[in-house]
């Protein structure tokens, strides 16, 4: 097993998601399927609508990597979640909707950092505690 595979498993364990490594990129996905959402009047359980995804790649000789994240949020979760991310030094790069006609209305936070992947994962896991 390669070092990135071991690191990816640790990263996923901290975040509570499922790991996958392809082309030296660790990708972790976690469903937020406990949120009941309708899109265009129909119930949706799609991973496209209700997800969190994280990745890390491009690890340098100091162990720092490009860490990326995206999380589906209820509108009332957005401010506290983003506040926790920013307080820990993670950069919010976008906050927007993906779907029209969704109930409840979801927003998607995109965020990033350059640091050790497990440090990023711990910070995100801490911010995740404010979510319903």
Report the structural category. alpha+beta
Order of helices and strands: HEEEEEEHEEEH
Q: How confident is the prediction overall: mean pLDDT?
A: 97
Note the main sheet: 6 strands, antiparallel
Radius of gyration: 15 Å
Helix amount:
25-40%
Give the strand order, joined by hyphens, for the main sheet: 1-2-5-6-9-7
Distance between the termini: 36 Å
Task: Work out the count of structural domains.
Answer: 1
Concise account of the structure shown:
By secondary structure, the chain is of the alpha+beta class. The chain is built from three helices and nine strands; from the N terminus they run αββββββαβββα.
Task: Provide the descriptors you would attach to this structure in a database record.
three-stranded antiparallel β-sheet; single chain; alpha+beta; 3 helices; six-stranded antiparallel β-sheet; 29% helix; 40% strand; 132 residues
């Amino acid at each position: 097993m390669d070092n990135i595979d071991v690191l990816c498993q640790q990263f996923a364990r901290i975040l509570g998601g499922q790991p996958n490594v392809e082309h030296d990129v660790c990708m972790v996905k976690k469903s937020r399927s406990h949120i009941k959402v309708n899109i265009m009047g129909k119930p949706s359980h799609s991973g496209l609508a209700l997800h969190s995804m994280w990745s890390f790649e491009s690890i340098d000789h100091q162990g720092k990597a490009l860490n990326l994240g995206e999380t589906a949020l209820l509108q009332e979760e957005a401010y506290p979640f983003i506040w926790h991310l920013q307080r820990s030094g993670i950069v919010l790069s976008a906050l927007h909707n993906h779907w029209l006609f969704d109930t409840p209305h979801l927003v998607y936070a995109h965020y990033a950092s350059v640091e050790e992947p497990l440090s990023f994962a711990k910070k995100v896991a801490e911010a995740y505690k404010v979510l319903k």
